[in-house]
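INTERNAL AUDIT FORM
Audit reference: QA-55
Scope: verify that the stored structure record matches its stored sequence.
Auditor: D.O.
Record contents follow.
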Amino acid sequence: MTEPQDWPFEQPAEGTLRPWYLTATGYLEVLFSDPEEAQRAQRGLLQHQIPQEELRLYESEEILRILSQLQEERSIAAKAVAALVADPAAKQDFLDNAWTGGAALWLVARTRDRADHLVRLLADYNYSSLRYYGDHGVTEVERDADQHPSHTPHAETPPAWALASSRLGVGQENA
């Protein structure tokens, strides 16, 4: 039996100066503006034999509740550290996604190869943002503006993951 996952986003802020995003290593965070699409992606990953315990879907209400709780738990010093080290754009995207009813899907990706595999599986889902928290910092995985994920891959066009996966190693890294 597999142990329950210790999800970084759910780590209590009490007693630590380091925000969760500085301790998250080995995870993909995928934001969806449409919670139904997030649920569809979760079902699809399960159908591809991704273990249930390696997936965690957060609906907007839960995200906002956890963020509020973390803010209350943080000391003044911890709030200062978070203000200095946070990526303002990523933080704002995460908050905006939750405030507008979006969802966040977290996946365990202990290695870059595992992350690449998961990115390929997610290629046909309409996510708005994908970040890999790896050993060397955070990598943004972006699609080209002309890529529109479809629900069925087309043999005559390269799959959406071909570019996204290649960018996983070349994306913006924040230590």
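Auditor finding: record pair retrieved intact. Confidence is low (pLDDT under 50) at residues 148-175.
Action required: none
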